[in-house]
Amino acid sequence: MAKRLVIGNWKMNPETFEAAKAVARKTRAISAKLCNTDVVVCPPFPFIAACVSRSQPPAFHIGAQTVSLEEGGAHTGEVSAKTLQSLNVEFVIAGHSEARAAGDTDETVSRKIGRIVEAGMIAVVCVGEKTRDENGSHLDFLKKQIRKTFAGISPDKTKRVILAYEPIWAIGAKEAMAPEQVYEMSLFVKKVFADIFGHEAGHKVRVLYGGSVNFRNAGDIIKVGRVDGLLVGRESVNMPGFKELIRAVDAIG
Ligand code: PGA
Q1: Among the atoms of ligand 1, which is closest to the Cα of residue 98?
Q2: CA dist 36 to 32, 164, 248, Å?
Q3: Of 211, 206, 207, 208, which is closest to residue 233 (Cα–Cα)?
């Protein structure tokens, strides 16, 4: 059975270099004891190099929160996929709802996915609805969002794609989505992916859940929600909590 994946999206946290090194060090120490789980930390860009260590446990990986859609050249403030790859980054988040709210469109997310996979890294592609209603309009929204986000991607690239289902209403909220609903929604996004790229790609693609995951709910979201892993925001920089979260996931076996 494939290992589960716990990805920590640090966002703009912590504020200082020293604090970032401490979070990375502690996360590495936890990762050294895992059997069934891989852990990825996604620090702010300036902290990435400091989070890489020579004596890194195999279960500990480095990710980035975004990437430029440009290959390189004169683009002030941008960071290219090749630069990230040269820093030992293996995973890059694309299409996070906060990045979408700040201007990323389905089309730009699609181009970013292209850059990430061309550079040999794995794209963690976030999708999710803003609201839900009884008529199921969120399902139509998601279907369209997934179709448009993957419009420019060729089927051979899907091996390097992970889907992160993150209902926007559950991000930064008090409660996560109920695990039973996570299960339903993960099946739905897999089905939409299979409709685009074929049965095998849909079967193989890993689906993560994100949105208010903490050490209390992580185990049930994996067990009942039957997802392949978690995309964790706040709790990933909250050390006692993240340690418990990872342990709970690893203990599921
Ligand atoms: P949260 O963030 O865990 O703080 O809700 C999740 C995310 O935005 O990926």
Answers
A1: 8
A2: 11, 19, 11
A3: 211
Question: What pLDDT tens digit does each residue of the chain (253 aa) get?
Answer: 689 999 999 999 999 999 999 999 999 999 999 999 999 999 999 999 999 988 889 999 999 999 999 999 999 999 999 999 999 999 999 999 999 999 999 999 999 999 999 999 999 999 999 998 888 899 999 999 999 999 989 999 999 999 999 999 999 999 999 999 999 999 999 999 999 999 999 999 999 999 999 999 999 999 999 999 999 999 999 999 999 999 999 999 7
Q: What's the token pair of residue 218? A: 């992580």
The DSSP H or E segment spanning 192 is helix 179-197
From the alpha carbon of 126, which atom of ligand 1 is closest? 9
CA nearest neighbour of 112 among 129, 127, 92:
92
Residue 96 annotated to the active site:
yes
Classify burial at 4, counting beta carbons within 10 Å of its beta carbon; exposed 0-12, middle 13-18, buried 19 or more. buried
The pTM of the full predicted model, rounded to 2 decimals, is 0.97
Residue 233 CB–ligand 1 contact under 6 Å: yes
* 166 close to ligand 1 (CB < 6 Angstrom): yes
Pairwise CA distance, residues 253 & 249, whole Å: 8
- Spatial separation of the C-alpha atoms in residues 7 and 86, rounded to whole Å: 20
